[in-house]
Amino acid sequence: MTVAYDKREGLIWMDGKLINWKDANVHILTHAMHYASSVFEGERCYNGKIFKSQLHSERLKSSALLIDFEVPYSIEEIESAKKDVLSANNLNEAYVRAIAWRGAGEDMGVASAKNPVRLAIAAWEWGAYYGDAKMKGAKLDISKWKRPSPETIPCEAKAAGLYMICTMSKHAAEAKGCSDAMMFDYRGYVAEATGANIFFVKDGEVHTPKPDCFLNGLTRQTVITMLEERNIVVHERHIMPNELEGFEQCWLTGTAAEVTPVGEIGGYKFDVGHLTQDISKSYDNLVRE
To answer: Given Cys at both, which of 66, 84, 211, 271 links 154, Cβ 3.0 to 4.6 Å?
Structure first.
C-alpha cells in the first residue's frame, strides 16, 4: 500500500533548515491555502544530479515575481538547499519539489503584502508518471476546460492556482480510464496536457503548439533542441483540432512525464513510431549524462 505523502519518513528543507518530514506543516490560515498565492517547481534527479537544476530555480523565482511576491532566497541558496535535501535523504534518483508561498501573517484577505513568503523543498523516489504508457502509449481524454487567455492569468508562471482546471480535467480523464487529458486553449487551438506539453509527427516533421498561453516547459525546450540537432523540422504553431486526424505520432514532455508516447487522444489513434521511441530513449540518456 502506498504511504500517504504526509505520513512518509525523511527530511524536508523548510525556511532555511532541514526538519522531520511529518513536521513540515503550515497553519490553516496560510494565505496560499485560501488564495493560491504559491509557485512551485517539479524537478528530477538522475544519478545524483538534478537535470537543469539552476533553470528550475531561476523559474521558481521568476514565477513568484509574476504573481507579485519575491522568494527570499538566492539562486545559490536554493541550489544548496536542494543538494542538502537529496543528501539528507540518501537519494540518488528522485523527484524534487520546491514550493514558495505566502504564509500566515497579518493579512487574511485577498491582499497579503504583510505576510511572510516561505520556501520548502522535498524529494522522494518516484517512477514513471504515466506508468507503462512509456512503452505502449498513453490514452488521453479531451478536456472540457480550456487554457485561458494571457490577459486573464500570468501564463508564464508555474503557479499553483493555474492548475485547478488541470486537476479537474485529469480527474475526469481517469474516470474514463484515461491517463490524462489534452486541453484546447481559449481560441480553440490545441494547447497541452494537464501537466505536460505535447508534440505531433506528420511526414517526418514535428508540430507542437505555440506556447503563447501556457508554460513553455524546460523539457519541451530540451526536446526541440534535440530534434533540431537531428535536422528534423519543428513547427511551433497554432494547431487546429481537425488536424489531429492527420498526425501519425504523438508524445508528451515534462519533468514528471519525461518523454511519454501517446497512443490515443479522444478516439484519434497514434503509432508509437520510430521518432517517438528515439526521442524518448535519447532523452533518457541525456538526463543521465
So the answer is: 66
DSSP letter (8 states) at residue 4: P
Specify the amino acid at residue 2. Answer: T
| Helix (H/G/I), strand (E/B), else coil: 203 | coil
**What does the pLDDT look like over 226-272, one tens digit per residue?**
999 999 999 999 999 999 999 999 999 999 999 999 999 999 999 99
110-141 CB burial, b ≥16 within 10 A, e <16? eebeebebbbbbbbbeeeebbeebbeebbbbb
pLDDT reported for residue 284: 96
Amino acid at 122: A
What does the pLDDT look like over 123-147, one tens digit per residue?
Answer: 999 988 887 777 789 999 999 999 9
* Section 103-108 average pLDDT: 95
> Which CATH number is 133-286 given?
3.20.10.10
Q: What is the 3-state secondary structure (H, E, C) of 118-138?
A: EEEEEEECCCCCCCCHHHHCE
Full-prediction pTM beyond 0.70?
Answer: yes
- Domain spanning 5-124: CATH 3.40.30.50: no
Helices within the chain (DSSP H only): 31-35, 53-66, 75-88, 133-136, 164-175, 218-229, 274-286
Do β-strands 138-147 and 258-265 pair in parallel, antiparallel, or remain unpaired?
A: parallel
Active site (annotated) includes residue 114 = no
> Which residues 6+ apart lie within 8 Å of 49 measured at CB?
none
Q: Is the pLDDT of residue 1 over 70?
A: no
* Catalytic residue from among 158, 170, 176, 281: 158
Return the closest-CA partner of residue 227 out of 255, 246, 254, 199.
199
Q: Which residue ranges make up each domain of the chain?
A: 5-124, 133-286
